[in-house]
Design goal:
This protein has four helices and six strands. The protein is α+β, with helices and mostly antiparallel strands. A six-stranded antiparallel β-sheet has the order 1-2-6-5-4-3, with helices on both faces. The longest helix has 17 residues. The relative contact order is 0.16.
Length: 144
């Protein structure tokens, strides 16, 4: 996590969010063969600021909505693959948990076995870890 405003903009969060953000974070994983995962987080000073920002997000990519593990809506989206990954498939989610807005991006090569619930499982884990941290607990994460 960093409090550097330019990093917030580098992560492609809206400028208005970056002006109010407390910190931004990025976690990425790739197996260098057929799967990539990116977890982008932006935190706000309080839940009200995060809720207001979440309401103003660009909804043009939203495909569907389901309740996240903590009851907050999670929105799914299709990812636009960069030019060098045109054959890859991608999905993502956006969510808000407490003072944090997150975007999870998951991409894979065609033919790669990806369990149907992989994206929702990762989203659930991230939301639960944010919730643990906001309750003052020591969050634990797993890549399993």
């Amino acid at each position: 996590m960093t409090k550097e405003p330019s990093q917030c903009q580098d992560e492609e969060w809206p400028d208005g969010w970056c002006a109010r953000a407390g910190a931004v974070g990025l976690s990425a994983f790739t197996n260098l063969a057929d799967q990539e995962l990116g977890i982008h987080l932006v935190s706000f000073p309080d839940e009200q600021s995060a809720a207001q920002a979440f309401k103003t997000r660009d909804k043009s990519d939203d495909m569907g909505r389901y309740p996240g593990p903590a009851g907050e809506p999670v929105y799914t989206l299709d990812l636009v693959a960069p030019r060098d990954y045109l054959l890859w498939t991608g999905r993502g989610t956006t969510f808000r948990q407490g003072t944090v807005i997150g975007r999870i991006e998951y991409a894979w090569k065609p033919g790669t076995h990806v369990p149907a619930d992989r994206l929702s499982a990762v989203t659930r884990m991230v939301i639960q870890r944010i919730d643990e941290k906001e309750r003052g607990l020591n969050p634990t994460a797993s890549a399993h």
